[in-house]
Specification:
Helix 3 (about 65-75) runs parallel beside helix 12. The protein is elongated. It has about 550 residues and is mostly helical. About 80% of the residues lie in helices and about 0% in strands.
Amino acid sequence: MDFGIGSIIQIFGSLAFFIFGMKMMSEGIQRAAGSQLRGFLGNMTKNRVLGVFTGFLITALVQSSSATTVMTVSFVNAGLLSLLESAGVMMGANIGTTITGWLVSFLGFKVKLSAYSIPLFAIGVPMLFMNKGKVKYWGEFIVGFAILFLGLSALKGSVPDIKHNPEVLEWLKSFSNSGIWSRLFFVLVGTILTIVVQSSSAAMAITLTMCAQGWLPFEVSAAMILGENIGTTITAELASIVGNTAAKRSARIHSLFNVIGVTWMVIVLPLFLPVLSSFMMSIGFEDPTSKEGMALGLSAFHTSFNMLNVLIMIGFVPWLVKVATKTVKEKLDEDESNSRLQFISGNIITPELATIELQKETAHFGKVTSKMNGFLEALIQEKDEKKRRKLQKKLAKYESITDNMEVEITAYITKLADREITSETSIRLRTYMNIANDLERIGDIYFQMGKNIEVKNEKKIYFMPEQRQNLLEMIALVSEGFEEMVTNLQVADYASVTKEKAREIEDRINVKRNEMRTRNQDQLGEAGYPVEAAMTYNTIFSSLERVGDHLINVTESVVGEI
């Protein structure tokens, strides 16, 4: 047999070239059209049919169903898409990924690919050195396309012709004559192949190449393609691991859709393939079961299967959502839920698309931090010692949460900033960094106020009714500040945010602080006025004013003044 370790290395090297080209294409177009894709995805998913079309179109453009599914899971994670909306996009992505098969079939086995690659390099490489607008990113897309062609050409040359390896054909035949068990075996082979290479398009290219070289019969190849449909679900499942419950459910819907589709097609495959073959020959194509017509036949099978599966399953989307909801349980512990990032999945391919996760996460961070104001209010009013200790532990826990969130958000921003980004994205990343820093400092202030009150209680020092009432009024003003801050953080377009209301609230906090400080100083000279209580009182209202400063800082970061 003329097939050794050298041939295997050649195949893996060619495959790596192919995958790298596809990755470069996908990232290039996402950088060039990231914001447009984001807007398109958000606006075109209002019903299932539009969602399917959107998923198809985006996948056809970026040439990667994995990129589309990861993007979709991340948008569900960020709360931009509902489970119902994401289901349509995932279904459309399955149809869109079949474009790669047609591309490989029409070009990969019909023409000399280097004839396309060299001119594409001539166009794309000069664009890589341009800094004008998004020309550079479109250059990445074109160069990636050229590399993909070269990888496919190398793959063709790496897989030996079956004529020189007849024993392989005999070995494969021994596995392909056991009816449904053979189909299930090759479904498993296709699944494992896709999981290993982490690209259904690359797995499809391998399958088509093996067919072109006469290694695989038509039915076996079709079964492998079905397995590749299952294998591609692993990408979405992996993307959802670090996501929230909604993201995990979205990935589960994708897996259910593909597994159910493959199941019914495995059963009807012996009936479906002859019908497809007859149809293709009736419209002028070669017999798909022949070596010459198999590549196009498999592409037609891949497309027709995914289209039929979408047509069948689109009416069952609510059921898929229900099953995903039941199989992926939601954690009910509020503190546990707040203790980790909710929207940053780490799976968005380009920084331009990742900023939307950051925006959602900073808004969530703001909500988490605002809870500390309520804990402080309860602590000041609570007389039961056991309950006070619980509230102090809450403040300590949430201070730790804010520290962790700031560290994780900063680390994520740093990772994004290390990549090539646009000036607009750079500004947005700095904005989120500033917001996270201010929110973390707020957490520190509340923790320290909790410690101050704890010390006061241990020393049996008590606030006077007037002091307690003034602090509660100050806390109420700060609560208004938090509400305005969170509202501003939740606005999708920061350019539409104004700071007038936030500034007005901050001014009222300052006025209240000044009144409390003046009154406190005046009373210190009065007989019977508790000095130690007055000192703690002064520390608390001064700290609350500092919280107000950070709140306005956040809004100023949002409007672009910091």
